[in-house]
Amino acid sequence: MDRNLALEVVRVTEAAALYASRLMGRGDAEQANRAATEAMAQVFSSVSIRGRIVSGGEYEDSPFARGMMVGTNSGSEVDIAIDPLDGKTTCANGGNNAIAAIALGEKDELFSTPQIYMEKIAVGPEARGVVDITQPPEINIKRVARAKDKYIEDVTVCVLDRERHCDLIASIRATGARIKLINDGDISGAVATAMDGKAIDILMGSGGAMQGVVAAAALKCLGGDIQARFIYRNEDDKRKVLDTGEKDLDRIYGIGDLAKGNIVFAATGITNGELLPGVLFVSGGAQTHSVVMRSKTRTVRYITAMHQFDYKPMY
After folding, report:
1. Which of 57, 171, 186, 313 could form a disulfide with 137 if both were Cys (CB 3.0 to 4.6 A apart)?
2. Is the pLDDT of residue 312 over 70?
3. Residue 147 shares a structural domain with residue 232
4. How far apart are CA 146 and CA 138, in angstroms?
């Protein structure tokens, strides 16, 4: 992939962030998600790629449904995992941790997943290879504490604040580790485990499979690690996985299964969160904060952009 593509895709996440952030706190999660999605689709129309969505759209007529093509149909042939608004509910409620995120990989290098749930465990480079999703939380927390040369009481575990995680949270608390509960946006929580200066050591729990693939792409760029396995709520979930060609419904996916090869990841903050500050509106424009990274060079760039609306009609 052309390295300039890394900066091109930031325009895509910036547009999604600008549109979605205007709907922050207005109580309509689906409207915010559609606004972010439509903004991304509009910018993609000028990006010189032949892009195939392998994981994306969450609603029926989404331009990012699995298998859809995006871009100008020229330039690099890439697979795309995309989440125009990770944290749509928290954005609609005026909360924290909403981002627009995208991962690009070479053809067949990103895992194509149906829209169901996955159990995940994610860590940064220091704990790469030490976690095992089949082990109880206390074992993984002890291993990460040892790998990072920390007391267990100083390890911070990020968990989505959901009723389904009650037993997981109780197990973590029993170890003495700290817990960071987030209302939404587990991409941010997973990626933060591998970012310098962030206060999260491990992400645990279940969330969307699409978000798992996007997070895996970012962690690959950062040298982190993730394991995941599908959660089946019903027979239809099992059928969706079998329809992908997967024969082992109990398979554990490592980072190399979810994202491999040459990867580009970009994200822009929508509301303030663990990974990035949110959009700041000012007179006549707005400020956005983004991060873009490449697995080939492990380069991580932070981009602060000032958008002047008088000169950007689409905003």
Report:
1. 171
2. no
3. yes
4. 12
Q: Please tell me the distance from the alpha carbon of residue 151 to that of residue 156, in angstroms, as a whole number.
A: 11
* pLDDT over 90 percentage in the chain: 87
Sequence-ordered alpha helix ranges (H) in 182-313: 186-192, 209-222, 235-242, 255-258
Asked if residue 56 lies in contact with residue 82, where contact means CB atoms within 8 angstroms, the answer is: yes
Q: What is the CATH number of the domain that holds 99?
A: 3.30.540.10
Same domain, 223 and 123: yes
Give CA–CA dist 169/158, Å, rounded. 10
Q: Mark whether 302 and 235 lie in a shared domain.
A: no
- Amino acid occupying residue 273: G
* Domain stop point among 216, 231, 258: 258
Write the CATH number for 234: 3.40.190.90
Q: Where are the alpha helices (DSSP H) in 106-165?
A: 137-147
Residues 202 and 225 in one domain: yes
135 shares its domain with 253:
yes
Place of tokens 């207005």: 26
pLDDT tens digits, residue range 38-79?
A: 999 999 999 999 999 998 876 778 899 888 999 998 888 999
Residues 183 and 304 placed together within one structural domain of the fold? no
C-alpha distances (whole Å) from 141 to each of 26, 127, 148, 168, 278 are 38, 10, 10, 12, 30
Together in a domain, 138 and 248: yes
Q: How many domains does the chain have?
A: 2
116 vs 312, higher pLDDT: 116
Encode pLDDT of 136-146 as tens digits. Answer: 999 999 999 99
Residues contacting residue 84 through CB under 8 Å, at least 6 positions apart: 16, 20, 33, 36, 37, 39, 40, 64, 100
- What's the pLDDT score for residue 315? 47
Q: At what angle do helices 5-21 and 29-44 cross, to 10 degrees?
A: 150
- Give the residue numbers spanning the domain of 126: 117-258
Contacts of 308 (CB under 8 A, 6+ apart): 284, 285
- The beta-strand segments (E) located in the chain are 49-55, 69-70, 76-86, 99-106, 117-123, 156-160, 178-182, 202-208, 225-231, 253-254, 263-269, 280-282, 285-294, 300-308
